[in-house]
Write a structure and sequence with these properties.
The structure holds 2 protein chains of 2 kinds. Helix content of chain A is 22%, strand content 35%. By secondary structure, chain A is an alpha+beta fold. Among the domains of chain A are: 5-52 and 148-234, Gyrase A, domain 2 (2-Layer Sandwich), CATH 3.30.1360; 282-361, Aminomethyltransferase beta-barrel domains (Elongation Factor Tu (Ef-tu), domain 3, Beta Barrel), CATH 2.40.30. By secondary structure, chain B is α+β, with helices and mostly antiparallel strands. The two termini of chain B are 14 Å apart. Classes of the chains: A alpha+beta, B alpha+beta.
Chain lengths: 365, 131
């Protein structure tokens, strides 16, 4: 068994009294104090996350765009900007030939022939192998960047606070959603995984502890992966390995919008997705709200008038003070369903995610 | 360091037991257990008058991250659950040995209570887990 890895912020987390857990091969903070308080801090003010476990891969060379247009289900051509314009980011799935999802990722266009992928930690090895195998005769270089760390500042106050101490703060505040700015070795993007505004910041590992300390000193609450999970679930954002995997296509997990078939571009998985769409998709992703007390959890069976499905992610929603879930249900499931919790049936309502965005509840309670 | 009151009995499942004057026993989870679970958001309690065998799951405590079963350590009959937990499951976090009790039951064989861990035994047990 390989050793559990530590991010450059490991000692910082220990010093802050974090409860550490193994996640995707890394020692990561689950929470520092109350996970619920950390969650609310992000919805109402600002929170700080270590996400350095994420795998960063740079792709550069003359054929980079052509290669990424083939490997990714979303189209990186959308990222083209004027020569001196801001970098831009795009969310995409990376598919198998049969349409199953190998991973989901963010791709940044740093310059014309220079891109950066941020993929999941738990899928690192298979992703790297896949990316190398697909490179074939393309003229490009793939370079993993393990020396880089990544943190996220999220919440309604996050950008203004972070801009006070980050270089070229004015430029950062002018970034539109999914735009990014590179300054020396630092890439700051207006992206995130919480449903709130904020930045994700990629910096050399040697600099991240100082940056973290400065951001923390501004009153930004430190938050663990526990709060990150409840925040992303409320925001209706999928978690790879839970809400999707290689047996699930983007059409079955709410990610149809990320598949770009507007041009005749050939990309891996396209033919399979078109066949699936033509034959009719059997399952789709929905949100669930539990009507009574209790907590929905991944794996629970859901009974609908259209057949059985299952919960892929479930939790207690701190913002709604109710239990919510993402579930994969038959397409003709109707409006209500029953969830089996410890052999007892509980009524849940089917809703369209997200549950919460930018601090506001987006579903009827 | 978690708190372990001297007057209670303990199980290796991180439950505490308090003998009451009326012959019933109050059960809750230890400070160590509530710290491990994190913020509690839901507690499922057994129905009153349910007869339960030793070792059977009879309640569930759910934190944000996970659900954990609570086992009845000795056979008996449930007297009543702590209804305050329906609206305030966080009492288990803030006062695990007091307001955060889970339920009371009447053991079939009260003498069996003596077989459970003392505060010192439990403290050693928890210390061993951290090695």
């Amino acid at each position: 068994m390989s050793e559990v890895k530590k991010t450059p912020l490991y000692d910082t987390h220990v010093g802050l009294g974090a409860r550490l857990v193994e996640f995707g091969g890394w020692n990561m903070p689950l929470y520092y104090g109350s996970q619920l308080d950390e969650h609310h801090a992000v919805r109402k003010h600002a929170g700080l996350f270590d996400v350095s476990h994420m795998t960063i891969v740079d792709v550069s060379g003359a054929d980079t765009e052509r290669y990424l247009r083939y490997v990714l289900a979303n189209d990186v051509r959308k990222l083209r900007t004027a020569e001196d314009g801001p970098c831009r980011a795009l969310y995409s799935c990376m598919l198998r030939k049969d349409g199953g999802i190998l991973d989901d990722l963010i791709v940044y266009r740093l310059s014309n022939n220079e891109f950066r992928l941020v993929v999941n930690a738990a899928t690192r090895e298979k992703d790297l192998a896949w990316l190398f195998n697909q490179a074939g005769n393309h003229s490009l270089e793939l370079l993993e960047r393990p020396e880089l760390a990544m943190i996220a500042v999220q919440g309604p106050q996050a950008r203004e606070l972070a801009a006070q101490i980050l270089p070229s703060g004015e430029v950062l505040l002018a970034l539109a959603p999914f735009q990014a700015h590179r300054y020396n070795d630092t890439l700051t993007a207006r992206t995130g995984y919480t449903g709130e505004d904020g930045f994700e910041i990629i910096v050399p590992g040697a600099q991240v502890a100082a940056l973290w300390a400065e951001l923390h000193a501004l009153g930004i609450s430190v938050c663990g992966l526990g709060a990150r999970d409840t925040l992303r679930l409320e925001a209706g954002l999928n978690l790879y390995g839970q809400d999707m995997d290689e047996t699930v296509s983007p059409l079955e997990c709410g990610l149809r919008w990320t598949v770009d078939s507007t041009t005749d571009r050939d990309f891996i998985g396209r033919a399979a997705l078109e066949r699936q769409a033509a034959n009719g998709v059997q399952f789709e992703q929905v949100g669930l709200i539990l009507e009574g007390r209790g907590v929905l959890r991944a794996g629970y069976i859901v009974r609908t008038t259209g057949g059985e499905g299952k919960i892929t992610s479930g939790t207690f929603s701190p913002t709604l003070a109710r239990s919510v879930a993402l579930a994969r249900l038959p397409v003709d499931a109707g409006a209500d369903c029953e969830v089996i919790i410890r052999n007892r049936s509980h009524v849940a309502r089917i809703v369209k995610p997200p549950f919460v965005r930018h601090g506001n509840i987006k579903v009827d309670l | 360091m978690s708190k372990i009151p001297a007057e209670l009995k303990y199980t290796t499942e991180h439950e505490w037991l308090r003998e009451r004057d009326d012959g019933t026993v109050e059960l809750g989870i230890t400070d160590h257990a509530q710290v491990s679970l994190g913020d509690l958001v839901f507690v499922e309690l057994p129905d009153d008058d349910t007869v339960i065998n030793a070792g059977d799951a009879c309640a569930v405590v759910e934190s944000v991250k996970a659900a954990s079963d609570v086992y009845l350590p000795l056979s008996g009959t449930i007297v009543n659950g702590n209804q305050a937990l329906a609206d305030s499951p966080d009492l288990v976090n803030t006062d695990p040995y007091g307001e955060g009790w889970l339920f009371r039951f009447r053991p079939d064989t009260p003498a069996e209570l003596d077989e459970f861990l003392s505060n010192e035994d439990y403290e050693h047990f928890v210390a061993g887990l951290n090695d």
